[in-house]
Structure to design on (896 residues):
């Protein structure tokens, strides 16, 4: 897998430099002059993404050899992960909606299997939430396949720019957007992403860096040529809200993995919003860089959790820097890279995105929500560092903390170099000529300012010690609301479950078994029987009556 | 079979043909009278006193209707000589009322179940099928007032739906079902005669099929239907499907004429009457299903002594034709 990844990387460089793309098409069947084909698109984008995915998955599999070492079903686990990566690869290289659906559904199914890997009620619930949320996206994709039939082929790549603004294309792009929103956990569908943390940590590392959640972004990157203005505004609003919401949520969360998951969500929002602003290359750039440091971040978290007997609550941690120095160093590098500290890899993508956004002439809402979210990213990152790495150790007094798990460390070390340098490397590779950024000084340092503000707030808000009043507890209900992702988990579990079922039982009781039964079927039957009995009276000695009626009718007709 | 019945049967057929193919109202009336006078001897049997009662009832009713018809024709002739713009609609309505009485359409239907109740199944079949032809074609010659015809249609549907609900006599059920179908046929006469022909042909086919089995098994009441042809499940099943076909359920041939009628009505923007017809016919369908279900699903007994001797091949063939001809025709025409 590693060698394949390197080969693909070199190939992508080749394709990038010569600006080429290969297109393979295998015709399967022809239905009503619409050809169903299996298509492979080999251009620099898919090759680069695939090389990243393969590299990260190879590191993760290596890592999980030790992390899942004592597990009985490790073979099943590894094969699931491989299937997962395979579906992702299928999704990446196919520019055809039907073959995308293969990868897309494969991702949904295997992610369900992985989330419920630890078989308990919590992970079953999380898995069901994940699977059903993603199912909405599957349905949207299926519907867009149905609409695509109008064009005679499902290779969308040919129709994107030609048919932009077409009515059918609008519907298709809307459905694709819906699918991508579910996969990338944008706002109405965000609740599954933290819930999916019930999966084993290596899976989280793989899922939240480069595979599952980025599938939506990747699909939108492919489709972005055909988006209309209103759809872009919609996407911008939704994704910026997601970015802001998850940043806030992460600042109040105490579960180590959930914090990182929410930060992933925030970064996804960032990618989506810059995509909505038109910078699809920037979104792709951030996607790749983010994949690297987020994978490593999760692996560090996994190492910590592994050493603390699977305890994920960050309030138990602290002072780990003295016992697990290398892990903490990696964690810090990733965190700082995530914050966009200059000259780490995250800086190159994030700074560019924010500056391109500042160069645009959008409204003040977009401007501030970007900077607020960047500040929040720094805030929760430093809060995480405060809770885990420094201070006192708050776990059991009897414990074993060591960094003897060399396999995991080796796996993590495979990524660290890339986390540091890949941002700059990719920025030099992907952008042949530099972006022209012209900004006033204060707007230029706005990023740095918001980062510093985030550091301050993140440290101050989370300070705690014995008999110390935690500041966020002063606004307990507000914190609760913000920490629970603006009630999204409640809406997407209780809201779509309890209320419809309740409504159904009410309707069933009052209508089906009540009014409709009485005034519907029974009443119709009874009234028919009654009227039938009534009209049967006419048939007693009727012939005379009938003749009289007939003659009288004729008289009436004659008279008038 | 008595020899004179052959003669009267031929006379009856001829009367209808005279009525339908003649050019003047007088000869039309003549045809109707020949038809009436020759069906009376066909009805009466020595073994059953009810039959002569119903024959008398039928005779009086039809004679009165013929009288009115003749009177209306003469008066129209006297007043405006059938010149179209001058035609008095009242006289036309009188004429149509007379014809509808002959037909047994709803407000003039009171004689119909009474007469039917006393007849044998073969006579019933003649009454339900052949006796409809002459009045119906004559109605088609008159241009009926749309309001009047709509009233007739709705009253036909309502009466048949209401009355059939409490009946246990199969002859009465078939009578009211016939009134129901008359409503549909009258709606076709408003628009196209060819669709009337299709409707009538299909109706006759299904009705003949149903009545043949009733005649073979001597079944007159709803309860008896549980006991018939229980020895042969295939025939019973396909026979019961005929009722669904009569009700106009889609895969069967009975759906085709209703489909054509609805199509015509919708094309002529008569949505309301089409909807009313469909909804009121549902009640008829309910009754057909009541006949079918109780005998097929709820109640079952198999006599060991009485074995029905029927020509399975013929019945199966006719059943197959009436049930699946829509499907087979569609397939054949699509394949060709």
């Amino acid at each position: 897998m590693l060698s394949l990844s390197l080969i693909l990387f070199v190939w992508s460089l080749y394709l990038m430099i010569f600006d080429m793309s290969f297109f393979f098409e295998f015709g399967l069947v022809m239905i009503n002059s619409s050809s169903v084909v299996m298509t492979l698109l080999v251009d620099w984008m898919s090759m680069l993404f695939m090389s990243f995915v393969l590299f990260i998955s190879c590191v993760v599999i290596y890592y999980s050899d030790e992390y899942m070492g004592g597990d009985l079903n490790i073979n099943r686990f590894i094969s699931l992960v491989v299937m997962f990566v395979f579906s992702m690869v299928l999704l990446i290289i196919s520019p055809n909606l039907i073959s995308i659906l293969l990868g897309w559904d494969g991702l949904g199914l295997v992610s369900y299997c992985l989330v419920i890997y630890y078989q308990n009620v919590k992970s079953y619930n999380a898995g069901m939430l994940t699977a059903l949320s993603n199912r909405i996206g599957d349905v949207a994709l299926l519907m867009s396949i149905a609409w695509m039939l109008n064009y005679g082929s499902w290779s969308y790549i040919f129709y994107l720019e030609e048919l932009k603004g077409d009515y059918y294309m609008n519907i298709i792009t809307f459905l694709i957007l819906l699918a991508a929103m579910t996969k990338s956990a944008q706002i109405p569908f965000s609740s599954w992403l933290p819930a999916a943390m019930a999966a084993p940590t290596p899976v989280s590392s793989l899922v939240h860096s480069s595979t599952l959640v980025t599938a939506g972004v990747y699909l939108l990157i492919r489709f972005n040529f055909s988006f209309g203005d209103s759809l872009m505004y919609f996407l911008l609003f939704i994704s910026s809200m997601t970015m802001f919401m998850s940043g806030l949520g992460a600042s109040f969360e105490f579960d180590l993995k959930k914090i990182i998951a929410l930060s992933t969500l925030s970064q996804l929002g960032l990618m989506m919003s810059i995509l909505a602003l038109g910078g699809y290359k920037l979104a792709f750039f951030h996607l790749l860089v983010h994949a690297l440091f987020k994978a490593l971040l999760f692996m560090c978290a996994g190492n910590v959790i592994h050493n603390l007997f699977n305890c994920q609550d960050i309030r138990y941690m602290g002072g780990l820097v003295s016992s697990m120095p290398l892990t903490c160093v990696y964690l810090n590098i990733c965190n700082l890279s995530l914050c966009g500290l200059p000259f780490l890899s995250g800086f190159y993508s994030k700074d560019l995105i924010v500056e391109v956004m500042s160069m645009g002439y959008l409204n003040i809402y977009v401007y501030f929500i970007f900077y607020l979210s960047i500040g929040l990213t720094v805030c929760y990152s430093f809060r995480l560092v405060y809770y885990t790495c420094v201070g006192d150790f708050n776990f059991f007094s009897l414990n074993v903390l060591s960094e003897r798990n060399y396999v995991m460390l080796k796996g993590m070390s495979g990524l660290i170099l890339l986390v540091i340098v890949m941002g700059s490397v990719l920025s030099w590779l992907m952008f042949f000529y530099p972006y022209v950024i012209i900004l006033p000084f204060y707007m230029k340092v706005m990023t740095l300012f918001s980062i510093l503000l985030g550091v301050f707030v993140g440290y101050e808000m989370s300070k705690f010690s014995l008999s110390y009043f935690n500041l966020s507890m002063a606004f307990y209900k507000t914190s609760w609301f913000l920490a629970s992702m603006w009630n999204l988990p409640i809406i997407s579990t209780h809201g779509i479950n309890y209320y419809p079922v309740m409504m159904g039982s009410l309707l069933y009781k009052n209508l089906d078994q009540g009014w409709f039964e009485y005034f519907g079927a029974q009443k119709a039957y009874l009234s028919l029987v009654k009227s039938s009995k009534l009209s049967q009276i006419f048939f007693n000695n009727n012939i005379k009556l009938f003749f009289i009626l007939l003659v009288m009718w004729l008289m009436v007709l004659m008279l008038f | 079979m008595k020899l004179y019945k052959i003669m009267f049967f031929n006379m009856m057929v001829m009367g209808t043909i005279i009525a339908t193919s003649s050019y003047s109202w007088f000869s039309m009336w003549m045809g109707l009278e020949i038809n009436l006078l020759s069906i009376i001897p066909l009805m009466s049997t020595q073994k059953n006193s009810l039959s002569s009662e119903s024959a008398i009832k039928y005779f009086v009713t039809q004679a009165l209707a013929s009288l009115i018809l003749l009177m209306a024709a003469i008066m129209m002739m006297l007043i405006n000589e059938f010149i179209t713009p001058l035609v008095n609609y009242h006289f036309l309505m009188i004429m149509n009322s007379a014809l509808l009485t002959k037909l047994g359409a709803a407000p003039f239907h009171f004689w119909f179940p009474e007469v039917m109740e006393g007849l044998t199944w073969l006579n019933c079949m003649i009454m339900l099928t052949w006796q409809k032809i002459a009045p119906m074609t004559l109605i088609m010659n008159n241009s009926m007032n749309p309001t009047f015809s709509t009233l007739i249609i709705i009253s036909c549907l309502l009466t048949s739906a209401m009355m059939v609900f409490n009946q246990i006599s199969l002859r009465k059920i078939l009578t009211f079902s016939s009134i129901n179908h008359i409503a549909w046929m009258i709606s076709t006469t408003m628009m196209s005669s060819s669709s009337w022909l299709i409707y009538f042909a299909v109706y006759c086919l299904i009705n003949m099929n149903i009545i043949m089995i009733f005649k073979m098994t001597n079944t007159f009441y709803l309860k008896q239907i549980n006991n018939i042809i229980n020895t042969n499940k295939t025939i019973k099943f396909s026979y019961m499907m005929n009722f669904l076909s009569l009700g106009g359920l889609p895969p069967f041939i009975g759906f085709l004429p209703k489909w054509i009628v609805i199509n015509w009505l919708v094309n002529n923007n008569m949505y309301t009457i089409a909807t009313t017809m469909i909804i009121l016919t549902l009640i008829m369908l309910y009754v057909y299903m009541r006949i079918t279900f109780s005998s097929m699903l709820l109640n079952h007994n198999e006599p060991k002594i009485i074995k029905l001797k029927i020509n399975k091949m013929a019945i199966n063939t006719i059943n197959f034709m009436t049930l699946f001809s829509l499907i087979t025709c569609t397939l054949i025409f699509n394949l060709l």
Q: What stands out?
A: The two ends of chain B are 46 Å apart (CA to CA). Chain B touches chain A at residues 57, 60-61, 64, 68, 90, 93-94, 97, 101, 107-108, 110-111, 113-114, 159, 161-166, 283 (CB under 8 Å). The mean pLDDT of chain B is 87.
